Amino acid sequence: MSVKKSQSQFSLRNSAGKRVDGSLSDTTARILYKLALTVWHVSFHIENKHQNKRRENIGKRREDKLETPINTSGSFKEEVEELRELRDKQRKSRVEHKRLNHGMSRN
User: Fold this and answer.
1) Residue 41's pLDDT band (boundaries 50, 70, 90)?
2) Would the N or C end of the chain have less CB density within 10 A of its end CB?
3) What residues have CB less than 8 Å from 95, skipping those under 6 apart?
4) Quick one: which H or E segment has residue 48?
5) How far, in Å, CA of 43 to CA of 48, rounded?
């Protein structure tokens, strides 16, 4: 009396684009499926862990920004004026860079 093992059929394409048919025993197919599922689960959990880390770091940065002391020693108008000057200087340097490197005319 012989026991016939069932086979899992599959079809792939090789590097030359030719179709290659084959078959695996059920146990081999089951093992490969479980292996693929395990690899997917592990990669999913690793990615999830990285996302949670990123969220924690973003939260910490936000907290740090909230905890920075407000400068009350100087005049508010002086601070605003310094920030405006810095912004204008950065804007001029960007415009100059564009003009020199991208051939814009001076407007």
Assistant:
1) very high
2) N
3) 104
4) helix 26-67
5) 8
